[in-house]
Design goal:
About 30% of the residues lie in helices and about 10% in strands. It is an alpha/beta fold and about 325 residues long. Strands 2-1-3-4-5 form a 5-stranded parallel β-sheet, with helices on both faces.
Length: about 325
């Protein structure tokens, strides 16, 4: 079996294809602009739906979220494929071993001496984060498939049950692990991908409504972490970067980021700007995050260098 390419809910046969493209054409939108520098080294197959046991990172973490903590405490990372550390185009067996996918949470945890509980799921939306029956863009389901990444491949942690949402997992973790020192949340981009798929102008006219929905849903998530989770420590909300800062459509990502930042402010969280983290490095490559080596070619996901910049942004945002 050949490897899947995780493409925010769209898996294809044959040559690799990028995710859906909100806010503009396939070649010039802020999150999924394809940079054609030649074919990928390998083609990809449709996402296979096979049940696999989830494996944790950094020690045993049971379904309820309890697990060993480093001396410095625990760091709970939440969100989508970016904090998960997802990369497309890997050999099939790679997706059965989540420890091979390293996102900024692992880098932040190592630098702060925190045990990392990374509950992120590729394709998560702000709606599916709280309700597994809601539309995701590849986590539990996608517009074209009834199952998603979480059905086929292990995450970094075990959820208690197939119908447990990421928010429920997070609340359970906060209630059971009393030494959580940091929570990060990055979610919202997949809402935009879904909007692109469902609107004739690829979400251009609906960006304001979309941003309002993301802001509302994220506010509910953050308020629940504070309320039901009983967590009063630092929460860092991470915003999204642009693929091409020289492209006018990069303004679309700033609109989305503004809604995410507003939700953070309203719920006592601080913002780590992914947009600002990538921009200086991209400027040295005519604005292209891909040419600057921050984003994988023909993809939307960060390279190791990109993840390091996001980790630095989170570190800088953590209250000292």
């Amino acid at each position: 079996m050949r490897a899947p390419i995780y493409c925010d809910g769209h898996c294809t046969r044959g040559p690799a294809a990028p995710p859906p493209t909100p806010w503009g054409s396939t070649l010039s939108n802020p999150l999924t602009r394809r940079v054609r520098r030649g074919a990928r080294a390998a083609s990809v197959a449709a996402c296979a739906v096979v049940l696999a046991a989830c494996s944790p990172v950094g020690g045993s973490v049971d379904a309820a979220g309890a697990g060993p903590a480093a001396d410095g405490g625990t760091y709970l990372a939440l969100g989508d494929s970016v904090p998960f550390g997802y990369r497309g185009g890997e050999p099939a067996e790679a997706y059965q071993d989540p420890t091979g996918f390293v996102g900024y949470p692992q880098l932040v945890g190592e630098s702060l001496g925190l045990d990392v509980v990374n509950a992120a799921c590729p394709g998560e939306t702000t709606a599916s984060f709280s309700d597994v029956t809601a539309q995701s863009n590849g986590c539990r389901n996608s517009p074209t498939m009834p199952a998603g990444y979480r059905t086929a491949y292990p995450l970094h942690v075990d959820y208690a049950a197939p119908d447990q949402s990421q928010l429920e997992y997070a609340v359970s973790t906060l209630q059971r692990i009393r030494d959580v020192r940091l929570v990060t949340v990055q979610v919202g981009a997949n809402d935009a991908f879904l909007c692109q798929q469902s609107t004739a102008d690829q979400c251009t006219s609906a960006i304001g409504t979309l941003t309002g929905t993301v802001q509302t849903n994220l506010s509910t998530i953050l308020a629940t972490l504070r309320g039901e989770g009983g967590y009063d420590g630092p929460i860092v909300v991470v915003t999204y970067y642009a693929l091409d800062y020289a492209d006018g459509t990069a303004a679309g990502i700033q609109v989305l980021d503004s809604g995410i930042a507003a939700a953070a402010k309203a719920n006592g969280a601080v913002v780590a700007s992914g947009y600002d983290a990538f921009k200086p490095a991209a400027a040295g490559s005519a604005g292209s995050s891909t040419d600057a080596g921050l984003v994988l070619p023909d993809d939307v996901h960060p390279t190791e260098k990109g993840q390091q910049l996001l980790a630095q942004a989170v570190r800088a945002a953590v209250p000292h």
